[in-house]
Amino acid sequence: MSRFKMRLAVVGLLVIAGFGWQGIRLYMEPTKQTQKKSGKKTPSVPTPATARNWVPAEIRRMPVAVQSKHCLALNAYYEARNEPQEGVRMVLYVTSHRAKLNRPYFGGRDFCSVVFHRTPSLRRVAGKSKVVWVPQFSWTNDTRVDLKPRNKEKWAFAQQAAQEQLDGTYVPPAHLRPALYYLNPTASSRNGKRFFRKLRHLDTIGSHQFYAEKRA
Q1: Is residue 151 domain-shared with residue 121, that is, in the same domain?
Q2: 66-86: per-residue pLDDT in tens?
Q3: Same domain? 22 vs 88
């Protein structure tokens, strides 16, 4: 097989795996030989097998049975602690829905991997192309975040809502069940909002707008 055909085959696999154009752009970066000459390194695209590398060691040291609930509760707390209770539950529903679909670009089927997953994005920084790892949920990019929240009341509800997701006792209204994305317009950048134009708006709860893929 020629080198050109081999590269086309890899591009096809990246598309099938769900990495889309970001994965393709990363693959089409300079080869190892070119990297040796330029001194540049291109990080590999994470897969579900390595996605847990983004999960903090403090959480990975917890008992396995505790990890999923803790990660879900953290996401509920930092993404929606000031939202109505239904909004908190829907943020958790979106998180668990992504895990159930087991898509590589969401982080696979592991709840903690989904919460802490990052996606490679090729961006221009100071006139040069640079791979930036973009977190799926923005709060996970803050290294100062407390992994054991101090607001006892809101943390307790986040844990309760997380357990509801794990037990399957929370079922959203029918029109919200396809939800895979949500947006807080007041906290999103222009580029972030542009992505949501490709999606189907389902409903708004509190500060969050919930969306589904148009084909869903």
Answers
A1: yes
A2: 999 999 999 999 999 999 999
A3: no
Contacts of 136 (CB under 8 A, 6+ apart): 106, 107, 114, 115, 116, 117, 118, 119
Give the model's confidence band at 130: pLDDT under 50 very low, under 70 low, under 90 confident, else very high: confident
Same domain, 52 and 145: yes
**Is there a domain that residue 212 lies in?**
no
Largest CA distance in the chain: 62
Beta bridge partners of 121: 132
- pTM listed for this prediction: 0.74
Domain with 145, as residue range(s), is 46-170
Render the chain in DSSP notation, one character per residue.
--HHHHHHHHHHHHHHHT-HHHHHHHHTS--HHHHHHHT---PPPP-TTTGGGGS-HHHHTS-HHHHHHHHHHHHHHHHHTTS-HHHHHHHHHHHHHHHHHT-GGGT-S-HHHHHH-EEEEEEEETTEEEEEEEESSGGGG-TT--SS-S-HHHHHHHHHHHHHHHHT-----GGGTT--EEE-GGG--HHHHHHGGGEEEEEEETTEEEEEETT-
Q: 58-69: per-residue pLDDT in tens?
A: 999 999 889 999
Residue type present at position 196 = F
Does 21 map to a domain? yes
